[in-house]
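Troubleshooting log. The previous structure file for this entry was overwritten by mistake, so regenerating from the original sequence record. Sequence copied from the archived sheet and checked twice against the printout by T.R.
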Amino acid sequence: MSASKMTSKQESKEAGDAANDPARALAYVLRGNKGPEARSARLEDSRVDYFRGKDLYRALKARPEIVDEYAPKLTGVPTPTAPTEKDRTRQITAMGQELLKRGYFVKCDRVYKTARPGRTKRVKFPKFLHKTPRAAQTFTEDGEGFYSWTYDQPMSWTFVIISFLVAFMVILMCLFPLSPIWFKKLILYACLGILGLFFVIGVVRVFVFASVWIVFGRHFWVLPNITSDEIPIDEVFSPMWAFDDLDAGGNVVGKIPALNRLAAAGSAAAMLAALYAIAPEKGSAIKSINRAHGSILDLFDLYDTPKGLAGATNATNATATANESAAAAGGGAGRNESVAEGGEAGTADGWDPLDEDVAPPAPPPPYGGPEAPEEGGSADAETKAEL
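Regenerated output below.
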């Protein structure tokens, strides 16, 4: 069965259930785009979607037609002709209490009640929740508390398309070893660029924090949420900067005296000077980077010419060079033998004046001097020398 048929069948089933059960119909609407903002968190041993009570109040007050349609069906009380703000709040509270009673969501609370170390405010959407006791399972008018959905969100076309895209990306990842060298290098350098960007951001954050802390004694952070694991991805870069030493009333807390800050700055400067003194030579860093780059290319086999082909080519070139050397040596020896035999073109001693590669013969010894030994004599002399 295709995905479109499954989706249309499920939507028709939801519509039929909604006609018979107003609470289910309202839950179906609130789980869609018209409902409150939902986030993901860990509830005990499972992942759930949850929302804040105040967000549900805000969403329903922005769409009074939903309240007018479902509030009378759930509560049995008709909507006033000119409802006031209190009437709307009372209706939304009754609707939320009815959904909570029928088990479409449950009330939860934070696992960590206090702010993280180094922070003065708690996050709006925590990542860890736990269920509140049964006696506290109520939907209050103040909108406080978190509510975890137990009603599954219906499948939409967006979910189907994203599922196909994820499967397609997995197939592409499996085919990555067969991709061309330029594509592999592109992915490698993109990953290294992202890592380098995070490293630069970390260095800038530390430098700015240290500078402001030494001069003013304040805790000033650039991109304060970039290292938080409780912030969704769309809120990582918001705000761009913030002071982290303010209490609920906006007062500065934990300010360190100037003398202590100067002492810490002096210690940091001494440590940096010591590191600079034992630093390697000026060009060693570039050499280390080049070696690391070569190691990475060698690890992932990202050379433009495969190693096997390169090795075979080098071996072929070496064999050809050796053959040429042997041929040259053999040709020279043969020519020397022909010259030694006293060819027609040479002199009586076998030397050709026109041949520049052959040295002229030695002059004869003076009268009465020792003559050069013959071949037999030279062999006997070599034998005696060996003995």
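The first helix runs from residue 3 to 20. Archived copy saved in two places this time.
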